[in-house]
Design a protein that fits this description.
920 residues, alpha+beta, six-stranded antiparallel sheet, five-stranded antiparallel sheet, 23 helices, 21% strand, flat
Length: 920
């Protein structure tokens, strides 16, 4: 079925689009021109108005806060009463202070913006002060208050500003005139502090001037006026442009003192403000609108506050919206007219064309009866008649093609494979599939993603895909048939083997046109071949094992006959020899050696029939130590004197359930193989450790999670190749030189012993670097024959303290609980960090044993953080099967104690808990 093609734009739509574009362009140009002239006019008028308003505000400010303040300070500081007050005695000062206070009160009545007037003497004491109509006695010494103490000085915010102002005025040096040593203090410049928010929450300023003690020509004090700015800011609120208040006020340090009330009218001006003093208004045309600002000063040339008027562009064109509505009405009217014209054209011209297009689409979808049922005139009617005649001829040809295809499909449907034709010139290139596609693949033709060169390209597994494509490309280039076998994925999920035979077909000019082919299912043949190979491999392995058993059994039988005398006769001789005879010791040695040899023979028989009896708890360190002191080890070293042995045995190694003889054989064979892998100088390293696996690990073989005693034997020898490492555990497979050593049975015996002990082995090797064999033995919870002494155990016994064990693995909780109960602790265990937090919320614990890795849920570090919020200083020790991590160190920084690696041992966990509980 062909897909429906997209139709072009109709005549109606074309006419409509053209008229709309013309109307929009015309209206847009007119609106742009009108908007430009309107905005320029508005901006010009607005700039003049804003500039005038700023000048008015500046004049009002200078009258209220500059000229009046300067006159008032000069009048008060030059008062003769104040001169007399500085020069007279303390008793007379009390009389004069009242007159001065009355003068201050009268000044405040005259100037409504004055809030408070103070006189501070040269020692920093506020001797005279009035607030409003009231006298104000303030027992504060401004000179004793240091700059560092201002932040903590909270009696009065205005006094805090007064301290700064007093210190500033006191630091100005006095002036000395020439002549007769006459000191005088000419009128000084006013010093300011502010603006600041006073203790009443009002924005204020503090102005002051120094007073000279005329009698001695020295600094006599400071006269200060606390003036409120509320009147000025109230006046700013009444200043509006476009019925909106757009005024911002900043202090000299750039701090915002006032902003417009409406958020939508705010144009942030701080990015456009100059850092220099602006004595006259400055206008800035910015992208967002208009910004005008001017500095207001009390001290000439020094800014006190900066008043900014910022107007967003939206306000500048606010009254242009009626014009926009007019142009919009014109545009809508034009659109309606265009719509009517377009409908008229469509009724008499485009409708017949649309009917023809619909009929053509139905034909493309397979409806060969599609005809145009439309009566019209002229050229359009001729087009309709030609179309209807074409459909009738197409119906006849299609019937013939269907009959031919059905005959071809009937013939190919009887073949036992997929028959296909692939068109190399088209994206939809699968021209034909016979009816075997679904039975062989589970897919229909419509399910397949089209391939460029291979009919089943989307089903081929990734490993075979490139090989198939390259083979077909090569066949097309060489103009040869091809045959290739590959694997595909059936729709139900199983894997099938297909054999494809194909041939490229070419055009007359030599260009490739088709690929015709047949695909056969050969899955049964391939599976039978794989099964045959597997049976052959099992048979060969069984024959090798049978040979091992036969050899071991025969050797053991002969050795038993030989050793019977060695074991029996010394025992008979010992019966007749006195206890003090010097011959008893040699005979006992012979007897023990014979018994050991007999035990080795029995072990050899056990290996021959497999199934080692493992019933004894042993310590792997002891077995390794005994081997390193044995005669076999000494003899091996004598043959390889340039090889050095290093050992690293974990002193806290846990026990395992094992057969000592067989484990000794494993250690001996691994050490012997490591030595023989070294030619010349080299090193063999034997190490043991306890290791806890939180999750299964995939190495040479998969190792399940759990507690393990790990034996590692590594060498610096030649290494094992990738081809050999897959065969090293096969019986009789060896790369050793004939006559040197080795029969190919050492590693197979090791493999068998490890499997009988429910263990695992891992092998890693690099050519020229060396090999490492790692053996995992499950931990056995119990004591070996060499158990710990009771005196050592008593050193870390508990006294009934409560220990909370937190671990997500049940077996680990059980082991830890059993050990701690043996050490006489009270134990509670939980399975997650969330359960631990819930328990600590309602209970307490002397110490936590905290697993660092828990899944799912929060891990050890997050658990400890939550518990510290409930119980600060909570004691804890940390445990994990992995090496120490950054999260472990972070937990220890928060207060956690010792970090111990799993698996747990009685001494390891007991010592850690005892040490942590004894900390203060």
């Amino acid at each position: 079925m062909t897909s429906k093609k997209k139709s072009g734009i109709s005549i109606f739509a074309r006419i409509l689009i053209i008229f709309i574009c013309v109307n929009i362009a015309t209206s847009g140009i007119l609106m742009t021109i009108a908007f430009t002239f309107h905005r320029q006019s508005i901006e010009h008028r607005t700039k003049e108005t804003v500039t005038q308003q700023l000048e008015i505000l500046r004049d009002n400010f200078e009258n209220d806060y500059r000229h009046n303040l300067k006159k008032t300070l000069e009048m008060l500081v030059s008062s003769s009463i104040l001169d007399d007050y500085i020069a007279v005695s303390d008793y007379e000062k009390k009389i004069l202070s009242k007159k001065i206070e009355q003068q201050f009160i009268q000044t405040i009545k005259t100037h409504k913006t004055y809030h408070c007037i103070r006189f501070i003497d040269a020692d920093g004491n506020i001797n005279i002060g009035v607030t409003g109509k009231l006298r104000n006695k303030e027992a504060v010494n401004l000179k004793q208050i240091k700059s560092d103490d201002l932040a903590s000085f909270s009696e009065s915010l205005s006094l805090r500003a007064g301290v700064k102002l007093f210190q500033k005025l006191e630091s100005i040096p006095l002036l000395l005139s020439g002549g007769y040593m006459e000191w005088f203090m000419p009128s000084r410049e006013i010093q300011l502090e502010g603006p600041f928010i006073d203790e009443n929450g009002k924005l204020s300023l503090l102005a002051g001037v120094s007073k000279l003690d005329l009698d001695i020509g020295a600094f006599g004090g400071v006269l200060m006026i606390h003036q409120k700015l509320e009147k000025f800011f109230n006046g700013l609120r009444d200043v509006k442009f476009f019925d909106e208040n757009l005024i911002w006020v900043f202090d000299a340090k750039g701090r915002l003192l006032k902003s417009p009330e409406k958020e939508e009218n705010r144009l942030m001006p701080d990015h456009y403000l100059s850092a220099t003093f602006q004595g006259t208004p400055r206008l800035l045309d910015v992208k967002e609108g208009l910004v005008v600002y001017q500095d207001f000063s009390i001290i000439p040339g020094k800014p006190f506050i900066r008043v900014v008027i910022s107007m967003p562009s939206a306000l500048l064109v606010k009254d242009f919206f009626p014009a926009i509505r007019f142009f919009s009405l014109v545009l809508v009217s034009s659109l309606v007219l265009v719509l009517l014209v377009s409908l008229y054209v469509s009724r008499y011209l485009s409708k017949p064309i649309i009917e023809l297009a619909k009929a053509a689409n139905r034909m493309a979808e397979g409806d060969l009866n599609a005809k145009v049922r439309l009566k019209t005139t002229g050229e359009v009617q001729m087009l309709v008649n030609s179309f209807n005649q074409m459909t009738e001829e197409l119906q006849q040809k299609t019937i013939l093609l269907v009959e031919r295809e059905q005959r071809y499909r009937n013939l190919t449907g009887n073949l036992p494979g997929i028959v296909y034709r692939l068109d190399l010139r088209s994206d939809k290139n699968i021209l034909f599939f016979n009816d075997m596609l679904y039975p062989m693949t589970g897919h229909n033709d419509e399910d397949l993603k089209r391939g460029k060169l291979c009919a089943l390209e989307s089903m081929i597994i990734q490993q075979d895909s490139n090989k198939v494509i390259l083979k077909i490309i090569d066949a097309i280039k060489k103009k040869q048939p091809f045959q290739i076998e590959y694997r595909v994925k059936h729709k139900e999920g199983d894997r099938r083997y297909f054999l494809e035979r194909g041939r490229p077909i070419y055009q007359s000019n030599g260009e490739p046109k088709y690929v015709d082919g047949v695909i056969l299912d050969v899955t049964e043949r391939e599976e039978a071949e794989d099964e045959r190979k597997e049976l052959e491999s099992k048979l060969l392995r069984a024959q090798k094992l049978e040979a091992v058993g036969t050899l071991a059994g025969g050797v053991a039988h002969d050795l038993n006959n030989i050793l019977s005398g060695v074991v029996s006769y010394p025992e008979l001789l010992l019966l007749g020899i006195p206890e003090e005879s010097p011959l008893r010791k040699p005979l006992l040695t012979i007897k023990k050696s014979g018994e050991k040899a007999a035990a080795v023979v029995n072990d050899l028989l056990t290996l021959a029939r497999r199934g080692v009896v493992v019933t004894e708890i042993v310590n792997l360190n002891n077995i390794i130590s005994d081997y390193l002191e044995s005669l076999e080890y000494s003899k091996m070293l004598s043959y390889h004197s340039e090889v050095r042995f290093d050992t690293d045995l974990d002193l806290n190694l846990l026990n395992i359930m094992a057969s000592p003889i067989h484990i000794t054989k494993v250690v001996m064979n691994l050490a012997s193989n490591a030595v023989e892998a070294i030619s010349g100088i080299g090193t063999v390293r034997i190490s043991t450790e306890c290791r806890y696996l939180d999750r299964p690990v995939s190495n040479y073989e998969n190792v399940n999670e759990g507690d393990y005693v790990v034996l590692t034997v590594s060498d610096s020898g030649e290494g094992i190749s990738d081809q050999d490492i897959e065969k090293i555990f096969e019986p009789f497979y060896t790369k050793k030189k004939m006559g040197r050593s080795g029969t190919g049975l050492g590693l197979p015996v090791i493999w068998g012993v490890i499997k009988d002990h429910n263990g695992y082995i891992d092998v890693k090797s690099d050519r020229g670097i060396g090999s490492t064999f790692t053996v995992f033995f499950p931990v056995a919870r119990g004591n070996s024959a060499k158990a710990e002494s009771k005196s050592a155990l008593d050193s870390f016994m508990g006294k009934g303290e409560l220990i909370l064990v937190i671990d997500d693995v049940e077996e680990q909780r059980q082991v830890a609980s059993a050990i701690l109960e043996t050490l006489r602790y009270s134990v509670v265990s939980v399975s997650s960090g969330e359960d631990a937090v819930e328990y600590i919320t309602n209970n307490s614990a002397d110490l936590l044993v905290l697993d660092m890795i828990m899944d799912p849920g929060i891990d050890g570090l997050d658990t400890y953080k939550k518990i510290l919020n409930l119980h600060p200083g909570q004691k804890a020790i940390l445990a994990s099967g992995y090496s120490e991590t950054d999260r472990v160190k972070e937990a220890q920084r928060l207060g956690a104690g010792t970090y111990i690696k799993k698996p747990y041992t009685l001494e390891k966990i007991g010592t850690a808990i005892k040490r942590e509980l004894e900390k203060q």
